[in-house]
Amino acid sequence: MFTGIIEELGRVRSLERRGEGVRMTVEARVVTEGTAEGDSIAVNGVCLTALEVRRDSFAADGSRETLQRSTLGTLRAGSAVNLERAVTPSTRLGGHIVQGHVDARGRFLSAEEHGGSWTVRVGFPPEFARYLVFKGSVAVEGISLTVAALAEDHFEVAVIPKTWAVTNLSHLRPGDAVNLEADIIAKYVERILRFGARQGETQSGLTLERLSELGYR
Questions:
Q1: Rounded CA gap, 14 and 75, in Å?
Q2: Which residue, 110, 115, 114, 155, is CA-closest to 132?
Q3: What SS3 class is residue 186?
Q4: More confident site: 11 or 88
Q5: In the predicted structure, residue 192 carries a pLDDT above the cut 90
Q6: pLDDT tens-digit map of 25-48
Q7: Cα separations (Å) of 12 from 44, 46, 74?
């Protein structure tokens, strides 16, 4: 589990194809501190297992499923990547609960500067829309962000100078794919409502038909 507070902006040193998967080596100095082989590190919001941990780098394997679902398959040597170690019992939860399980690919649409801060616009696929609410949480490239504006096919987030400086948002160009992860609480609520409706528990007035109208399919 992660918080979505990026600890370090690393760089891909190398990529080696292994069958339908890939082994990547990432240059890093912060997230390698206290990390042992087998520990979890989020790379652009994707939970990976750290291997060959060195003082200045670590390796990680990406499976076919990971490459298909996330943007890791588009990385190249030199790509900037957001890095975060898994939380510990004493970690401050400064963002929100991020699992490192990518739900969808979005698109970086634009970034507009406002005196050092930025408004970033991100497009999302239709199936992701039901998990987004105004002022709710969303992880973009593993970064915990708050939805500041919401439309049918895109949302906007306000990015402070610190986040802009220490993440890969400043490296993205319009049209670039980004990893999106919905708030886990939203997914649990959806599941509970669907299960309750199927069992005929309609005390709240939510029937399967009404859920369908609200976008829960």
A1: 10
A2: 155
A3: helix
A4: 11
A5: no
A6: 999 999 999 999 999 999 999 999
A7: 11, 14, 11
Which 3-state string (H, E, C) describes 66-100?
Answer: HHHHCCHHHCCCCCEEEEEECCCCCCCCCCCCECC
- Contact between 158 and 148 under an 8 Å Cβ cutoff? The reply is yes
Length of the chain in residues, anyone? 217
Please write the tens of the pLDDT for every residue from 153-177: 999 999 999 999 999 999 999 999 9
Tracing tokens 């739900």 back to the chain, one arrives at 103
SS (H, E, C) 119-153: EEEEECCHHHHHHCCCCCEEEECCEEEEEEEECCC
Residue appearing with tokens 């109208």 = 213
Tell me: domain 1-89+96-182, CATH 3.10.25.10, correct? no
Spatial CA neighbour of 167 closest among 75, 80, 58: 80
Residues 6+ apart with CB under 8 A from 168: 9, 44, 80, 81, 82, 141
Residue 73's pLDDT is: 92
CA distance 167 to 142: 10
Residue identified by tokens 């890939």 is 22
Q: What is the DSSP letter of 173?
A: -
* Portions of the chain given CATH number 2.40.30.20: 1-89+96-182
Cα–chain-centroid distance for residue 160?
18
Distance, CA of 150 to CA of 129 (rounded, Å): 9
